[in-house]
Amino acid sequence: MLKSDVVTTSKCYVTELISEKKARQIAEEFSREVARKIDGHLKAVVVIGSLADGNYKAGKSDIDTVLI
Fold first, then answer.
1. Would the pTM of this model clear 0.90, i.e. be above it?
2. Eight-class DSSP state of 33
3. Which residues make Cβ contacts (< 8 Å) with residue 4, sequence separation at least 6?
4. Is beta strand 64-67 parallel, antiparallel or unpaired with respect to 45-48?
5. Where are the domains of the chain?
6. What is the pLDDT of residues 8-38, one digit of tens each?
7. Is 50 exposed, middle or buried, given 0-12, 13-18 or 19+ CB atoms closer than 10 A?
């Protein structure tokens, strides 16, 4: 296992509603940042859950991703 394979997460509390458009932008920015940090080891970042299936609800939904 590579050192870069270990990803830590923490809870983040947001004080504003994030629209679906903004959530997609956040997911894209996240993908670019992860790709930059683990250069050459990332095959894909897949958005899953409500954002992926069109059921995203501002203020209720989170942004779920899978890194491959």
1. no
2. H
3. 37, 38, 41
4. antiparallel
5. 14-67
6. 555 666 667 999 999 999 999 999 999 999 8
7. middle
